[in-house]
Here is the input.
Amino acid sequence: MKVSVIGCGYLGAVHAAAMAELGHSVVGVDVDAGKIDLLNAGFAPFYEPGLPDILASALRTGRLRFTTDMSEVEDARVHFIAVGTPQQKHSAAADLRFVEAAIDSLLPFLSDADLVVGKSTVPVGTAARLAEIIQRHSGATLAWNPEFLREGFAVDDTIAPDRLVYGVPPGIRGEQAAAMLNEVYESAVTRGTPVVVTDYATSELVKTAANAFLATKISFINAMAEIAEVTGADVTQLADAIGYDARIGRRFLNAGVGFGGGCLPKDIRAFTARAEELGRGESLAFLKEIDAINLRRRDRVVELVVDAFDSEPFRRRVAVLGLSFKPDSDDVRDSPALDVAVRLHGLGADVVATDPEAIANSRRLHPQLTFEADIKAALEGADVVTVLTEWKQFRDIDPSLLSAGTDRTIIDGRNCLDGEAWRRAGWTYVALGRA
Ligand code: UGA
Here is the structure.
């Protein structure tokens, strides 16, 4: 099929390359000319394992191209909207400017046989409003098809999703839209991937509900970590033990410095704001607590570092291992690790931060920090070391090869290290939610 993908960020660039990989003829559109040049040259503008490979192979087939010129989407029958919906500057609500601009610039090139497919995460009610505009101006149909990809696994999640959700209008138009989406995702559909065909509102809510649930799971275990810290209990053993109950499950129960990224934090805030607009603020008031628990974990790490310096962090050297919001990503949007590094710097500590992929993005936002690409050099002379993103490179550090000095402390902000091994090597090992 001929498809266009509007917005070539973390979601759209992967979606465009994956659609071409699946055999479709794809044009990706973005307003950022620099990004388009990189993509056309086969370079991923961000770190995502597997993306450079499928980009290169799809570009070689001639089925994939990128442009800043919206008129090039005219041939396509299916148009994916994959632009960002960040948090508004002065409120918790989502900023829909990019979605609206994408639709506005797409309208002149739509015909009534076209299908516009929203993938961006939007407040419930958005699709119905946009469908009306699209229908009135072009006769085209709108479907909402939320994306559930995880950064770091984005290519696999796009090519082999665990479910497909189609929000479509009622009647024959909806049936036609679902049939076109089944054709787009033919390989996943024939493999037996569950497909939920539903109305617009449900499809929008599925996405925000899923992220709200995941955020709740993480903050739940982090709340248990807070209780463990004052009772001498061990949150990782607690998570293992409750996780054996299949109804609870062990995944997404890793206590640590909390969730960040371009999705979970802003999505729970936007969901709360939307519930308030709908007069149902009380239904999602608990998400404010989820947010607060999450942010308190960052305070806790800062507190542990300050304690390790006997309340005098000024000019004391601290190594921050990890800057991205999670491993296998260079994304530092709302990253707990970067936030902690900045706060420690603000307290006057001599912070040296390292990350396998996220230094450039971090430096752009916070040039005041000192960065060191080499892990060994970052560790050099640091009295306190914090691991805030569980990259394999940090989990694999062998403490027996590092000098523990007289009084060095390692703070395991992700419960990802072998505490015993660090203690044996002479370090004071401190973890979140563990005595
Ligand atoms: C998340 C969802 O997992 C995806 O399903 C969704 O499609 C995506 O948001 C989105 O809305 O686009 P992602 O932001 O890539 O994906 O990252 P996650 O793997 O969900 O991790 C989010 C944060 O939670 C990270 O900072 C991670 O370190 C943290 N986390 C995760 C924990 O603190 N503990 C855990 O047990 C799991």
Notes: The mean pLDDT is 97.
